[in-house]
Amino acid sequence: MIRSAPTPPELLEIAVTVARDAAATAHRMRAEGVSVAATKSTVTDVVTAADRAVERQVLDALRTLRPDDAVLGEEYGAGETGPAADGGVRWIVDPIDGTVNYLYGLPYCAVSLAAEVAGEVVAGVVRNVATGEEWTATAGGGAWRAGERLRCSTETDLGQALVATGFGYAAGRRAHQARVVAELIPHVRDIRRMGAAALDLCLAAEGRVDAYYEKGLAAWDLAAGGLVAREAGLLVTGLAGRPAGPDLVIAAPPALFEPLHTRLAALDASGGP
Ligand code: IPD
Ligand code: CA
């Protein structure tokens, strides 16, 4: 059955309401003290009680507000809802992006919530748990923070570009990513590894970094921040015309895209384990 989905602004309104409550819970739980609840892919890939509690809260809120929608989350997967129906909505949530920062009390972690319709992200919000900064976007409606429409960097010289990136949790992957970054860093202004992919994409959306790339992102790392970045004018793709995804995400203003893409392709940035 084809069901008509709400408009992107309607989905964004729901996303913002849910993400604000979720960020408030994450903030409160951080103040109460945080510890590792479990590890996932490696011993450094941690999950805290807050990751689980915040995702549970988001799932419950969405079940109340949008009972027929599907949800994909980092901690509980898609198990509770199954796939989205034809033409239906799927929510994609990272309850805490930047969990290691959260654990260490570093103010660079966020709730990320996006709404996808027919496989396309149409609304997204990223809210910094520590600072309250909040980025939103709708497909075709622009990217916004604090009432200001966002535009990406106008830098045209890769040599002057501040480039954010991140590393995965598995040692072999990190070793490959370190080799790539070692070869890239002589050709850019500098590198930033801040520790939350969704926020990196949002900073790129307002030119607080010029570009961003990373291998190994999951759907919940990319969904909301990727829309914010695209709506601010960045090109967000993988290598050689492939879509952005686990192999590689490159988010760069049009003038920087080609030189950054060329460097990353030459360095086999999507390769390795
Ligand atoms: C991680 C962060 C980090 C990035 C990793 C992600 P998590 O997400 O976004 O910056 O480099 O690839 O897995 O584990 O904190 O939700
Ligand atoms: Ca996470």
Automatic annotation (TrEMBL):
Entry-linked InterPro entries: IMPase, Inositol_monoP_metal-BS, Inositol_monophosphatase-like
Keyword Metal-binding: yes
Pfam families: Inositol_P
Cofactor(s) named in the record: Mg(2+)
Enzyme class: hydrolase
Superkingdom assignment: Bacteria
Keyword DNA-binding: no
PANTHER family: INOSITOL MONOPHOSPHATASE, INOSITOL-1-MONOPHOSPHATASE-RELATED
Record protein name field: Inositol-1-monophosphatase
Organism: Micromonospora narathiwatensis
